[in-house]
Amino acid sequence: MTHSGSRPGSGKEFTRVNRTGVYPRVNRAGVYAGKRGNPDGPGGPGGPGTLRGPAGVGKGGDAGVPVGVLALQGDYALHAAALGALDRSVREVRTSHDLEGLSGLILPGGESTTMLKVMEGTDMEAALTRFAGAGGALFGTCAGIILLARGVTGPAQRSLGVLDVDVNRNGYGRQVDSFETELAWTEDSHPVRGVFIRAPRITRVGDGVRVLSERDGEPVLVRAGRILAATFHPELTDDRRLHRYFVETVMEAPAPAPAEAT
Ligand code: GLN
Q: How many domains in the chain?
């Protein structure tokens, strides 16, 4: 199989993608080797080359156990950088094999339709569903929550259905209707900044889904056990509290009894 250096539909050039589709700086185990080599390499400044932040940030910051970031399309490099700032090592996940050994995975913002297209004809969707069923922790942001949701409208498309919410894609309108706002949330007395870009609206929240933040009475941050999901983009701010909450609280929460064997 040959790689042309770009991924289908992403509209972005990926330089020096090797045979397995991972950046050369990622070692064989799929774990970032840290800030070595050319800092202007893939992803550029702030990208994968600058992943590792100051050591010792945060409790439970076990940099040895990577957190996965679904890296098919979208702003996954920003999530990787946020995890790096928390001194967590990161594995970019492009194939079902990349999920092996992970206990947490972030699904980034971007374009959910494109992500689904990239996964078409692969075992990735089934692997993600299995990952969730086996108690893997998931954090979906924007397009990520659209992938996780049970029902998707506006326009409709298939989804993993592992989070019991329905969403209306582009529920606020078009790109020009993107906005930012302060959001109170249940886990901290200080609000988080919500960056909404062609954001989905949550139209139904199932039993067992806890609403952690609302905007004008509508849920924008929800959690169901080991699944956390936001309709906005915490990775676009310098505030790492949501990523910290994911790795230190959601990922540390007990996994439910596996729904199916992996
Ligand atoms: N509306 C986009 C979608 O349908 C999501 C936008 C985003 O992730 N910023 O996937």
A: 1
Question: Terminal CA-to-CA distance of the chain, rounded, Å?
Answer: 27
- In this structure, is residue 179 part of a structural domain? no
Q: Are 79 and 91 in contact (CB under 8 A)?
A: no
Beta bridge partner(s), residue 26:
32
Q: Whose CA is nearest to atom 5 of ligand 1?
A: 143
Ligand 1 atom nearest to 112, measured from its CA: 10
The pLDDT of 9-17, averaged and rounded, is: 30
pLDDT in tens, 200-233: 999 999 999 999 999 999 999 999 999 999 999 9
- Supply the pTM of this predicted model: 0.77
pLDDT in tens, 84-103: 999 999 999 999 999 999 99
Ligand 1 lined by 171 (C-beta under 6 Å)? no
Task: Give the domain range for residue 114.
Answer: 1-22+58-148+199-253
Catalytic residue among 120, 142, 180, 187: 142
Residue bearing tokens 């540390």? 252
Domain containing residue 203: CATH number: 3.40.50.880
What's the distance, CA 222 to chain centroid? 14
Question: Is residue 9 in some structural domain?
Answer: yes
50 found inside a domain: no
Q: Tell me, what DSSP letter sits at residue 254?
A: P
